[in-house]
Amino acid sequence: MRLWSLHPRHLDRQGLTGCWRESLLAQAVLAGRTRGYRSHPQLERFRAQGDPLATVGAYLDVLAEEATARGYRFDRTRIDAAPADGAEPARIPVTGGQLALEWGHLLTKLEHRSPDRWQREHLVAGPEPHPLFTVVPGDIEPWEREPG
Q1: H or E segment and range at residue 10
Q2: What is the pTM (predicted TM-score) of this model?
Q3: Where does residue 146 fall: left (phi above 0), alpha (psi -120 to 50 degrees), or beta otherwise?
Q4: CB 101 within 8 A of CB 143
Q5: DSSP string covering 78-103
Q6: Mean pLDDT per segment of 10 residues, for the chain of length 148 residues?
Q7: Residue 118 sits in which domain range?
Q8: Is 12 domain-assigned?
């Protein structure tokens, strides 16, 4: 399961659709609808929020917005707790080290499966976080499993 801390605009088609599917799985786990992945470390940051379902709903909403901007149709009715109009969910801190790790991991993936996107993203000065996250100083998050 990879719930990117990166802004979804950096993801290629495969990354965006994969993140959507995995985020829906995370939502199902947080809602208690599935037994698998219950102890997945990436869910810790969502569980730590006052309303984990609304938080993952806000995460999914941004993915759906990016998909719409690209002409894809992600079914927003699958979001259990979409943010209310104008409501801003609490932002989750993510370390700069974590963002850098994910950026390197994404660039490696893009280089192999989406060379055109890799070329564009490789020239970017640095990654932008998903709007749900705010970058704080620090190393890789303790819940991270090194990408393989």
Answers
A1: none
A2: 0.89
A3: beta
A4: no
A5: G-TTPPPTT--PPPEEEEHHHHHHHH
A6: 90 95 95 84 90 93 96 95 71 95 91 80 79 96 76
A7: 8-136
A8: yes
